[in-house]
Specification:
The protein is built from 19 helices and no strands. It has 541 residues and is an all-alpha fold. The radius of gyration is 24 Å and the shape is globular.
Length: 541
């Protein structure tokens, strides 16, 4: 490497790290992530209050809950690659502003349609914020050792946000009206906007050629169709229904054309050559498999705790809290584990530990066993976070700095798709094991058995209406069938996790911590920005 190139690299690192306190930048980025993670779950406990106040129909209620993650997942690639072109900080700050405005609209919505629109705008804001946080983190921590620690803190904050959302929502509902779950976003946005503008460095990718607007819209529409179809499957929609099949087919066709366009375009949005790197493609696959195997279990576990063991929502949240605390611990310890064991052994270990936790939980039955649940959830949280940490860090480090936004968007999209497919797959396994046990309960009419086969909660309602010996028998059969289905679902999940452990063998054995791969992959400042970095005044957008 020549002296001029070495000086440019050092200058880049000063501008990216030392020029702005990168640890304060990390705090700002974590606050952004916390906000998005909170909003993904905070509404769940407010659904009954929203239903009572706005009187939405069944379809409207479904859209109120699902439109945020649906829109967010669809637009991650669009805004991730846009940030690479026009500036990641600029996109992040616009996301802050849109998130705050949409939160105010949602808080004071008077109709279901207004709330759906506001939640969709929140999804747009979330899609602007999520990939920008990871891509800026990639820029301000050029040293891989420090970046691994930063990603660990970042992932621990994500775990906190997902767990705190329902608890915060429950607290606000006890003291205020349902709109308060959205108003909590506004003070955070009022602080984040000026602080982010003052502290976050601006960065762009290599930016060769114009931004491919057609490709970005094709990717967004394709992902919208696929995610919508997958969510319908996970929500119990008929697999042969046109409302399920058509979005999946149209979405898959659009994604096929998107990939084909990117391969031929002189200035692609996403450099698909990244997938030729085993570490990158394997990391993306590990993220999908980890979420596919586990996200459905979270929903099933919540039903088990409340409907089988009879715990209250607050007690259920407290029982699941050790899972979150273990995930936080794994995130904070992840950097040290990665340096010591390397990506391959770390991700393999995470998958195997998570599979062991899942197999341990197959001992769950119709009676409460707090010690078993505590140990199982702790192992589950630690193993899952270890897996995701190693996969995310390897994926982000393998991507060129100029493609950081696109790489982050691919990682987040993989996470969302894995979660959606997991709910659909494990939900189907659960239903296939649960329903047959209710078809021949003595004294229960066929139509009542069919209704009880939809879910355990509905089975309890049907049993209550029937009453007497037949009702008690239906309730007992439903509980036993649910536990049987849970065990089968856990076994399928364990198999997927072990498959992930085998896939992780393609990851690098050691953590490479040398110089950046090549000058072409560095996010070097433009000539005018280089002068500003050297000490002259710089006007930033």
């Amino acid at each position: 490497m020549s002296g001029t190139t070495t000086a440019a690299v050092r200058q880049h690192r000063r501008a990216a790290g030392a020029g702005a306190n990168r640890w304060i930048v990390l705090v700002v980025l974590c606050a952004s992530l916390l906000l998005v993670a909170l909003d993904a779950t905070v509404l769940h406990v407010a659904v009954p209050a929203v239903t009572e106040d706005l009187k939405p129909g069944a379809v409207e209620l479904l859209w109120i809950v699902d439109v945020y993650p649906l829109v967010c997942a669809s637009l991650l690639i669009l805004f991730g690659t846009l940030g690479d072109r026009v500036g990641r900080r600029r996109v992040l700050l616009l996301g802050y502003g849109l998130f705050g405005i949409a939160s105010a609209v949602a808080a004071f919505a008077q109709t279901a349609e207004t709330l759906i629109l506001a939640r969709a705008l929140l999804g747009v804001g979330g899609a602007m914020i999520m990939p920008a946080t990871l891509s800026i983190l990639r820029q301000v921590f050029p040293d891989r050792r420090e970046r691994a620690l930063a990603i660990g803190i970042w992932s621990a904050v994500a775990a906190v946000g997902a767990a705190v959302g329902p608890l915060l929502g429950g607290f606000l509902l006890e003291h205020f009206w349902w709109g308060a779950v959205f108003l909590v976003n506004i003070p955070l946005m009022l602080v984040s906007l000026p602080v982010g503008r003052a502290l976050l460095p601006e960065s762009r990718g290599d930016g060769g050629g114009p931004w491919d607007v057609t490709g970005a819209l094709t990717a967004a529409a394709g992902l919208f169709g696929v995610v919508l179809g997958v969510k319908r499957l996970g929500g119990g929609g008929a697999a042969a229904s046109p409302l399920t099949v058509l979005p999946l087919l149209i979405g898959a066709a659009l994604l096929f054309f998107f990939v084909r366009r990117q391969r031929r375009h002189p200035h692609p949005l996403v450099d698909l050559r990244m997938f030729r790197r085993p570490a990158f493609s394997t990391s993306v696959g590990c993220i999908v498999l980890a979420m596919l195997a586990l996200v459905g279990l979270e929903l099933i576990a919540a039903q088990y705790l409340q409907l089988v063991l009879g715990l209250s929502p607050l007690e259920t949240g407290l029982r699941l809290l050790p899972l979150t605390l273990a995930a936080m611990a794994a995130g904070l310890a992840g950097a040290r584990m990665l340096r010591r064991f390397g990506p391959r052994r770390m991700v393999c270990f995470g998958f195997c530990l998570t599979a062991a936790a899942v197999l341990t939980l197959t001992a769950m039955g119709g009676t409460d066993n707090p010690a078993l649940l505590l140990s199982g959830f702790v192992l589950l949280g630690f193993g899952l976070e270890t897996t995701l940490f190693g996969a995310y860090e390897s994926m982000l480090s393998e991507a060129p700095a100029g493609q950081a936004g696109g790489a982050a968007a691919i990682g987040e999209t993989s996470y969302q798709l894995g979660a959606g497919i997991g709910i659909a797959l494990l939900g189907s396994v659960m239903n296939a094991a649960y329903t047959p046990g209710l078809r021949s309960v003595p004294g229960v009419p066929q139509h009542a058995s069919d209704a009880a086969g939809h879910s355990l909660g509905e089975a309890y309602e049907v049993a209550g209406r029937i009453g007497g010996t037949a009702g008690a028998a239906l309730r007992r059969a439903a509980r036993d069938s649910f536990v049987h289905g849970l065990h089968l679902t856990l076994l399928v999940s364990a198999g997927l996790l072990l498959l992930g452990a085998v896939m992780a063998l393609r990851l690098p054995r050691i953590m490479q911590c040398g110089e950046e791969p090549a000058e072409a992959e560095l996010d070097l400042p433009a000539p005018r920005e280089a002068e500003a970095a050297a000490g002259k005044p710089r006007v930033s957008a």
